[in-house]
């Protein structure tokens, strides 16, 4: 897959096959974050990887899915749950614009996963108070986001953003996600 195709198909996935993510894909994700650009090369982003089915099951009720959809459409059923979670953690003793650094790390991580067919959902609607002790975070560490991962059990495609769609993603008749995006003309202007 060339890079533009990888970017077009690396969508958010919210229903997954019950098949573990192999260790080599997890290693690629770690390497993709390790290589990320970051302010002053300070490298404040840390990952906590939850791959064991027991810990994954403990994390599942602490994340919220698909705010634009009713739960029966957007929340994965028990047999559709992600099989891996990665916590994006910031070492707050290191100065800098850690949110920008973490955003770049998230893009690298989810692309590295997708290059091997593993889909993801970046999750900001999470119960940080319950997740921090479960993940064993240290006092100086801040939980930025969780990433849910697994082999997708649905499709997702970009559709034009119109007055009718607005920005809200929706499911088509096959329960595939349709994700409205603004046109190139709307987001870029040339001087
Ligand atoms: C910072 C951030 C936080 C997000 N939080 C959630 C979340 O808590 N739950 C969820 O289901 N999706 C979440 N998403 C996924 C977005 O809804 C998704 O990226 C958006 O609808 C566009 O879809 P796309 O990723 O396929 O382009 C989040 C994405 C980002 C970048």
Strand-helix topology:
Elements: H1 3-9, H2 23-34, E1 45-50, H3 53-59, H4 71-74, E2 84-91, H5 98-114, E3 119-123, H6 128-134, E4 141-150, E5 156-160, E6 170-171, E7 177-181, H7 184-187
Parallel strand pairs: 5-7
Antiparallel strand pairs: 1-2, 2-4, 3-4, 6-7
Bound molecules: flavin mononucleotide.
Flavin mononucleotide binds at residues 11-12, 14, 64-66, 121-125, 145, 156, 169, 179.
Question: What do you see in this structure?
Answer:
This protein is an alpha+beta fold. The protein has helices at residues 3-9, 23-34, 53-59, 71-74, 98-114, 128-134, 184-187, and strands spanning 45-50, 84-91, 119-123, 141-150, 156-160, 170-171, 177-181. It is built from seven helices and seven strands. The strands form two sheets. Strands 1-2-4-3 form a four-stranded antiparallel sheet, sandwiched between helices. Helix 2 (23-34) packs antiparallel against helix 5. The chain is globular and about 45 Å long. The model has no long low-confidence stretch (mean pLDDT 98).
For the record, the CATH class of the largest domain is Alpha Beta
Secondary-structure element pattern, one letter each: HHEHHEHEHEEEEH
Spatial sequence of strands, sheet with the most strands: 1-2-4-3
CATH homolog superfamily of the largest domain: NADH Oxidase
Class inferred from helices and paired strands: alpha+beta
CATH architecture of the largest domain: 3-Layer(aba) Sandwich
Strand residue content: 15-25%
- Name the ligand types: flavin mononucleotide
Low-confidence stretches: none
Task: Give helix % range.
Answer: 25-40%
The major beta sheet can be summarized as:
4 strands, antiparallel
Looking at the structure, the CATH topology of the largest domain is NADH Oxidase
Mean pLDDT: 98
For the terminal residues, how far apart are their CA atoms? 32 Å
**Total domain count:** 2
Radius of gyration, taken over Cα atoms and rounded to an integer in Å = 17 Å
């Amino acid at each position: 897959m060339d890079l533009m195709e990888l970017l077009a198909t690396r969508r958010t996935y919210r229903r997954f096959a019950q098949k573990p993510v192999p260790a080599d894909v997890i290693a690629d994700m770690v390497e993709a974050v390790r290589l990320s650009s970051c302010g002053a090369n300070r490298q404040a982003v840390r990952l906590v990887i939850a791959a064991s089915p027991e810990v994954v099951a403990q994390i599942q009720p602490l994340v919220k899915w698909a705010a634009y959809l009713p739960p029966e459409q957007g929340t994965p059923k028990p047999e559709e749950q992600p099989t891996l979670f990665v916590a994006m953690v910031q070492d707050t003793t290191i100065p800098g614009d850690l949110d920008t650094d973490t955003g770049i790390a998230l893009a690298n991580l989810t692309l590295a996963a997708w290059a091997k067919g593993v889909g993801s959902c970046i999750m900001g609607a999470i119960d940080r108070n319950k997740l921090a002790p479960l993940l064993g975070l240290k006092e100086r560490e801040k939980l930025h986001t969780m990433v849910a991962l697994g082999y997708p059990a649905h499709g997702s495609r970009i559709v034009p953003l119109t007055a009718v769609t607005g920005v809200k993603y929706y499911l088509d008749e096959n329960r595939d996600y349709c994700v409205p995006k603004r046109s190139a003309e709307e987001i870029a202007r040339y001087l």
